[in-house]
Amino acid sequence: MAVPELPEVESVRLSLLPHVRGRVIRAAEVRRRDVVMISGPRGGERALPSRHQGVHLLQGARIESLERRGKQLALVGVKGKSRRVLVFHLGMTGQLFCLAPGAHLPEPTHVHVVWRLDSGARMVFRDPRRFGGVWSLANREALDKRWSELGPDALTISAAELESRLSKTRRMIKSVLLDQQVLAGVGNIYADESLFLSRIPPRAIASGLSPQMVRRLADAIRSVLAQAVESGGSSLSDGTYVNADREPGAYQRSHAVYSRGGMPCGACQSVLLTALISNRTTVWCPRCQPMP
DNA sequence: AATTTCTCCTGCAAGC
DNA sequence: TGCTTGCAGGAGAAAT
User: Fold this and answer.
1) Using one digit for the tens of pLDDT, what is the confidence trace for A103-161?
2) Can you tell me whether residue A125 is helix, strand or coil?
3) Is the pLDDT at A53 greater than 70, yes or no?
4) What average pLDDT does this structure show over A28-37?
5) DSSP per residue, A59-116
6) Per-residue flag: A140 CB under 7 A of strand C
7) Measured CA to C1', what is the nucleotide nearest A205?
8) Cys-Cys with A159: which of A30, A96, A166, A215 at CB 3.0–4.6 Å?
9) Per-residue confidence at A102, pLDDT binned at 50, 70, 90?
10) B13 C1' to A237 CA distance, Å
């Protein structure tokens, strides 16, 4: 698997920026309309209407900024006096990359939207499993509203903020870390890695963690995510995750527990355990992460 | 009301 | 060798 979580999305943002900043989008070609949404979540008011009415896809706009919140990416463009926004969620297998002028598509399958820039380059949204999508928003306010539903960004989460959010629920900490309304950006890989680094067992009750443990957890989350961004994210064997230049990341080499169930813990040699928690494969060390 | 389970989708790997 | 089965998971929907 290659699951775009915060570090992967941030790596896409950083690598995409030089391709799109200041560029004008000449045209957008939608090859599969049901990955393009005007508003609302998937499954609700989702698919692009047949006549493409009201869907700008940033056509004719000049790219002003490329922003990230949690696992979501927003391309903000200006056309005339108004701002328009494209939001990307990569889901599990989504890719957003650029092709030099004249370059051919490396992976012609599952390409859903292609944008042509005034530089001659093309920007491609590809997503084999289609858990991701593209949202075409009418203005900046729509983006702010959408992002106001997310918790604070995990890359800069403070202990105090995490404490206040964890104190409100008796769910298991592993489930809570995956909840984007509590904390935005952490997925299965970095939840397990952060819990290991902070020595907290995944089944611990969120509101039962001591202030000291919450502080350790906040430190671990920021540290793991920052190092993963530094490494360009995690690319696993299926090769799904690549940045905007189609380069893989290297952080998978630093995984302490993710996908290492049954193998010895790097710190204490105990056999790492695997279990389904909230229907997510979870790996942890029973000795380094004892129940409090 | 809070929390868990189900569902979507495809590609790959394991098993017979 | 070729089939079936299971698994991976983000997040909203449905169920408890």
Assistant:
1) 999 888 999 999 999 999 999 999 999 999 999 999 999 999 999 999 999 999 999 99
2) strand
3) no
4) 94
5) TTPEEEEEEEETTEEEEEEEETTEEEEEEEE-TTT-EEEEE-TTPPPSS-TTEEEEEE
6) no
7) B3
8) A215
9) very high
10) 12
The edge-to-edge listing of strands for the beta sheet with A111-117 is: A25-30, A111-117, A122-126, A95-99
Protein residues closer than 7 Å by CB to strand B: A 92, 109-110, 128-131, 169-172, 175, 237-238, 278-279
Asked whether strand C has any atom less than 7 Å from the CB of A44, the reply is: yes
Q: Which residues pair with A65 in a beta bridge?
A: A76
Task: List bases in chain B with any atom under 7 Å of a protein Cβ.
Answer: 2-13
**HEC-encoded secondary structure of chain A:** CCCCCHHHHHHHHHHHHHHHCCCEEEEEEECCHHHEECCCCCCCCCCCCCCCCCCCCCCCCEEEEEEEECCEEEEEEEECCEEEEEEEECCCCCEEEEECCCCCCCCCCCEEEEEEECCCCEEEEECCCCCCEEEEECCHHHHHHHHHCCCCEHHHCCHHHHHHHHCCCCCEHHHHHHCCCCCECCCHHHHHHHHHHCCCCCCCEHHHCCHHHHHHHHHHHHHHHHHHHHCCCCCCCCCCCCCCCCCCCCHHHHCCCCCCCCCECCCCCCECEEEEECCEEEEECCCCCCCC
pTM above 0.90, yes or no: yes
Q: Which of A35-44, A228-237, A245-254 has the lowest mean pLDDT?
A: A35-44
What are the tokens at A208? 């039962």
